[in-house]
Prior knowledge:
single chain; CATH 2.40.50.140; Rossmann fold; Transcription Regulator spoIIAA; five-stranded parallel β-sheet; globular; alpha/beta
Amino acid sequence: MKTVSFCTLGCRVNQYETRALQELFVNNGYKAVPFGEICDVCIVNTCAVTEESQRKSAQMIRRALKCCNDVRVCGCFSQLCEKFDNIKRITGCFDKGSLQDFCVHNKTEKNYELLNIGFTNSDKLIGVSKTRAYLKIQDGCNGKCTYCIIPKLRGASRSRPAEDIIKEATRLVGLGYKEIILTGIETAAYNYMPIYKLIERVAAIEGLKRLRLGSLDPNVLNDSFIKTVVDTPKLMPHFHLSLQSGCSSVLKRMKRPYTAEKAKERILALRSAKPNVMLSADIICAFPQETEEEFKETAEYLKEIGFLHIHAFPYSKRPETEAAEMEGQIPEEEKRHRMSLFLDVCNEMKTNILKSKIGTETKILVEKLTGCVAHGHSDDFCETAVKTNRPVSVGDIIECRVTDVQDGKLICRLI
Length: 415
């Protein structure tokens, strides 16, 4: 039996695509093996959102070439890796091609659509837990952000038909998945219907226990969306915002479609309607021309709102983007200094939020067991460790009381 291995870098969309590709190979007679083992085919699903992610992608391609003679590269970096010999590439996701050809035959240099593929059976897949599944609803982006190369690599925004999404979500629930995460390159750009209506339809699937969303533009937090959040118990009270900055002048240079004030207004409206909601955010530190005052403004903005987690990273020049040519590029040493200060703020915020939950009750989806400790996430996406005094299984949703905070995790006991 032929063997195939996979390496995935980057976003949830890549994780979804890797699982879908893994299933296609398995269904065509391949056995999935861990990345790094000698195999007949190796797929590296790459990322190019930052210079560091591009470096890691190149590193994984080189590693794959050492253990496989048939290396195939997909994802955003696939468009930028011409320097590598002896690889086959999915050169993007712009036109629908034959993934069957890609999986089974020796076809190269084609564009394959990774939007409308989904899972039918995960029993033979490796590294796949039946607790949580990503479901891709959209690909590409119509944004004109000055720092981002992804629209050039992924193409224009395009959405998956709602009926396909419902069909796949129903299948996933039938396979035993308890939680589904609707994701995309720009999740809120889903356009077959308003995103809140899609949420309502997926949440109505019998047997689904939890529903989450991928990263969201703050503009999605309109009154209709907020009403759906309040009226949909299966939609978990945690949202990750693609905020990027808490300073309006920086957001303007980024060409983001909102101001810091507008984002804050929508966040406060969400919090007013759903007081227990938890928020996370992406933030770019040391964007070109960012002054110390602008940096401090973002730090104060985040502290005022209070975020559970900040995915912060220093600005990284991307080729063929407007920001790469801007004057006022921040020196690397100053980037590191600001990131250090920023991480201190983020860690303090997270610690304070977690400590405020001591004594409260929560529900945990069990994702892993180590001895008598169950690991998972609360409904508002806090990482947890639960000391169990009775048998529990992966996939169970258990009621707990928070007793302590250790190493960024909630420590709980069963109720």
